[in-house]
Write a structure and sequence with these properties.
By secondary structure, this protein is of the alpha/beta class. It folds into two domains: 173 residues, Rossmann fold; 92 residues, 2-Layer Sandwich (Pantoate--beta-alanine Ligase, Chain: A,domain 2). It contains eleven helices and ten strands. Strand 9 and strand 10 form a beta hairpin. The longest helix has 16 residues. The chain is globular and about 55 Å long.
Amino acid sequence: MMKVIKTITALQEEIKAYKQANKTIGLVTTMGALHEGHASLIKAASEENDVAVVSVFVNPTQFGPTEDLDSYPRTLDADCRLAEGMGADVVFAPTPQEMYPSADMTWVEVTGNITKVLCGATRPIHFRGVATVVAKFFNLVQPDKAYFGQKDAQQVQVLQRMVRDLFFPLELRVMPIIREADGLAKSSRNTYLSAAERQSALILSQSLRAVQDSFAQGERTTAKLLEQVTNQIKTEPMAVIDYVSLYQLPDLTECPVQLSGRSLLAVAVKFGNTRLIDNVILEDK
């Protein structure tokens, strides 16, 4: 039977027992409001490890002062049912006071271009909050593998850098984007969309698929690929573009005039009051 743990002391006791029994641990960190994308991560963690731990924590330090911290959906009972159904052994659901006991904070911050571009350009504290809370979860759970979705592509790159630079002894597993049947990437924020906004949001996956086709047919000019995506998104009247960007992986550096190697094409677009992100990776096979 799955355990729901809310204190760090209880979690540490549980992890100690697993380690003494030489059990492998998979970790999925979430902010709750779980959907099929999270379910795929939990299922993988359960299948690939002896124990699957899921954190459910709306992390206040990654929200800016004008962002949706207070309105972010909190659905712990439903989250626990989904997690248990996917094979989770533990749900860790701490309070902010439990995770941040000191008034004067200790931060983990990944610096450089990797946190300054894309979402980092308009959300300057976001990735510091993400890196700090994920580092805390890594220290508490001591996972062998940690699972993240490709939809949060910049977050994945930031955390891979953190794992490498801080010598965390774990494998960071990046899992494919899970989409609705019509192509919309699964997101907790999709629930904010009106019916009309949700229909409009399909332009994101449609434009990304179209540019993948162009890339497959031989187009390599960075400016042309960006222009193609931008122009297609602009055909949707409800779409307000935050960014359409191409960066080289893994460090999110500027792409050359002609693409080579492995690149991330990422978009962030608002539909009404809801900001959605999506991406594809472009690389020669």
